[in-house]
Amino acid sequence: MGHPFPIREIARQAGLSEATVDRVLNGRGGVRESTAQEVRRAIADLDRQRTQVRLVGATFMVDIVMQSPDRFSTAVRTALEAELPSLHPAVIRSRFHFRETGPAEELVAVLDRIGRRGSQGVLLKAPDVPGITAAVGRLAAAGIPVVTLVTDLPASARIGHVGSDNRAAGATAAYLVQQWLGDRPGNVLTSLSSGFFRNEEEREMGFRSAMRVRGPGRALVEIAEGQGLDATQYDLVRAALERDPAIRAVYSIGGGNIATLRAFEDAGRECAVFVAHDLDQDNTRLLREHRLSAVLHHDLRHDLREACHLVMRAHGALPPAGPTLPSAVQVVTPYNMPSPALAG
């Protein structure tokens, strides 16, 4: 396992002891395969981040904890690492803790481990449930600032939130859906990954409120708890289509869009309008293929830069600033897609 990094750096990145890392690197045995994988991931993260920041200067170690489909977690990782050079003179080093689904207790355990091990900050995307709120409070009590990313935990001890105005995004989606459907009849399928993510709840409220004004005769058919995963989303959409033969449009709040489109195709149904969120790999391809009508997107790189600035201010590395403003919502069609370098 060749690498140019000191054992101390690898241990810090992986959150393991130097003795454990030494055993893995020298093949001495007595270490679980999952631990060896953590060491390999740490070396890969260090190598990627060294390319960006050269591992010099005053360093802040920040943990990014997210419950999200892999496609979105990957977009966040890419956006953060693209922003690292802009954060000089401070250097942000990052450890990633990503999971697609599972009970909130698992995320709580991750946050508590970070609290015991230590960190300069946590960027968190998690469901708004009491256990998570309590874990954020324990991190704050330990002097570890928490910034919520994309979806907020307003009742928690987090120091700030970065993301878009979700109610405005939902209302924008309603405007687009009704504008494109026009006078044609049809109901709208609204799809959430989970009812416990506040950002999705706010998008749905914004959409429903605007649709009451713009399309009062249309029924909104809600499905949830597909976790944004194609494997679970397909069955939820097929069941909704069987229950309601009038569904003709989709507002996808939580993802799983490949499965949603496949469910329409397998049912022999037309999806006349499809509005989704975020230019991840799946949605970028679907938009280029004109299988999505529009994607509501916000600049992840901007969000992550602001999140890192909040952590740095919490440690006195930057002067105080005014409140963090929501990211602008962009309506992206096949004809105005940003370049990959800017999609974030």
Automatic annotation (TrEMBL):
The organism sits in which domain of life?
Bacteria
Under the heading Pfam families, the entry gives: LacI (PF00356), Peripla_BP_4 (PF13407)
Q: What keywords sit in the KW lines?
A: DNA-binding, Transcription, Transcription regulation
Concerning SUPFAM superfamilies, the annotation shows: lambda repressor-like DNA-binding domains, Periplasmic binding protein-like I
What the entry lists under SMART domains is as follows:
HTH_LACI
Any GO molecular function: DNA-binding transcription factor activity
Residue intervals of the HTH lacI-type domain? 7-57
**What Gene3D superfamilies does this protein map onto?**
3.40.50.2300, lambda repressor-like DNA-binding domains (1.10.260.40)
Q: Which PANTHER family does this entry report, sorted A to Z? A: LACI-RELATED TRANSCRIPTIONAL REPRESSOR (PTHR30146), TRANSCRIPTIONAL REGULATORY PROTEIN (PTHR30146:SF152)
User: What name does UniProt use for this protein?
Assistant: DNA-binding protein
State the taxonomy lineage. Bacteria, Bacillati, Actinomycetota, Actinomycetes, Kitasatosporales
